[in-house]
## 1
Amino acid sequence: MRCFYAKAWIAASARRGAALALATGAARPWRGLRGVAKLLTLARTRTVTGCAQSGAAGEGQLSDRGGIFAGADPMAIVQRWLDEAELTEPNDPNAIALATVDAAGMPNVRMVLLKEIRPEGFVFYTNYESAKAGEIEGAGRAAFVLHWKSLRRQVRVRGAMRRVEGAEADAYFASRSLKSRLGAWASRQSQPLGARAELIAEVARQTARHGTNPPRPPFWGGYCLEPVEIEFWADGAFRLHDRFRWRRSGPGAAWEICRLSP
Ligand SMILES: Cc1cc2nc3c(=O)[nH]c(=O)nc-3n(C[C@H](O)[C@H](O)[C@H](O)COP(=O)(O)O)c2cc1C
């Protein structure tokens, strides 16, 4: 399958070239037209060599997607890179910068910890009454970036958001330390707080209330980001980095892979 976006960009450039050819045509029209012909040739070659559908037949066109970029499943590649980062990063290799957008279109970003990579998406946990949750619920979509300084690699992900609640969220909550569980009860995440002492007093209240076995708060749980786009980036000499973007129309659809200019 061809890379629609590269094709659209090049076609637009060709249109601009044609307009230029017409505009400057009075002097030497063939020059502008030669440029248009060049762009159209570029469009033909780029769309064939730059992108390919994931899987047997089309993938041969991306013959230089090997080494750390190899694999038929992008989720498995992210997992493999994360496994490597766990051996090299000083701390929190699973920290992601999660980007959301509010109702006015104002972007927002903060770190959260990626807790699971499943076939359908990337899972993290948070407070459902927090600013991020409001923005996630409002837009239904989010993006994140993973960056490992030690590996000089980056993974960018965009997609739709779905809650992870019920037994799955209960099980994850139960796996956390007692203090973290009580802290989740005590914190009204993203709300103004008068003083730290108020938070400590609230932890004491929640400890008296729940003892040593606090259930998962109803306002706390997970989100799964179901990707429609995943980009793998690795540092290259002299800024000639490698980038491969996987894109699909929705969950379950075939992936299209493009090598991108750095
Ligand atoms: C390394 C790191 C990991 C974090 N992990 C989480 C997390 O998993 N869940 C969470 O709710 N907040 C986490 N935080 C705190 C968030 O960055 C943020 O302060 C908080 O979620 C409130 O964000 P909001 O007001 O945009 O909702 C983490 C912060 C850092 C620096």
## 2
Amino acid sequence: MSQTNDRAAGSGLGDAPPPGAETAAAGKPLLRHEVVEKSAPLMLLLTLVSILIGGVVTVVPLFTIESTIEPVPGVRPYSPLELAGRNIYTREGCYTCHSQQIRPFRDEVDRYGHYSLAAESQYDHPFQWGSKRTGPDLARVGGKYSNAWHEAHLINPRQVLPGSIMPAYGFLARREVNPEEMAAHLRTLRRLGVPYTDEMIERAADDMRAQANPFDRNLAAMRERYPKAAVGPFTGPPRSPMDQTPVRITEMDALIAYLQVLGTLAEIDRLRPEDLRQIRRTGASPQ
Ligand code: HEC
């Protein structure tokens, strides 16, 4: 072992002139490599300079575009009921077992549908992409099952899928949500850039009640504001048009409304590749 080291020290790099040194000396390059490599401060300074150049090259072009998100037709902010459900999804930590991002790989697309587009989580604060799949991806679970299936599955996953390890969430059906609170949620999201209009904020409580009741007189107005919204009842038996009692909206109703909208908004069939481009500040308006 020590013999090899001796030999290396004796006949190796120390003694012999480094290969290419002659040509370097003859050509007098701007900065000799040995100088840089033997001085830690100089090496550090030059490394920093090259990283800065790299940073500027990647960051500065982004200042010339309005948004890095390609607009996709159909994507809209969440309705008040969907938003309440989304808050419950976050609170219960569903993202610890479920991702909401279909990656652009053949196996994922075959199993879950079209890969996720940036625009589809444009209004998510915070996004629910997740990083672990104990259960399946939920980015396009909307419309895959009926409301009744979701209700049974949330109450007891084992009842619809023997052997499922998903926890039961039956207690959500016993906790009510308050429609009057939703205007404040919408207002907060508007501050973060979600395009809720004054009307949407003003009518938030009505819209929430309308989505939960198929015979609500505000249903058409709600649907106009939030196209493609799934309409209740999300839990319990079908409601009769004669029933004039106010609908009791539970956390489970809200959560199912949210699950039913996931992945259904973007009109992917109508999307042409040339539509998928970033919006230039000076260019044509999106959509
Ligand atoms: C401990 C991990 C775990 C947590 C937490 C969890 N799930 Fe699941 N989930 C699973 C597993 C595993 C499956 C697959 C078996 C089944 O369908 O029950 C699943 C399946 C599902 C499905 C059916 C998906 C499909 O395409 O078939 C839905 C919907 C769902 N979960 C919603 C939720 C919601 C909503 C929450 C939070 C309230 C949640 N899950 C929390 C593990 C979890």
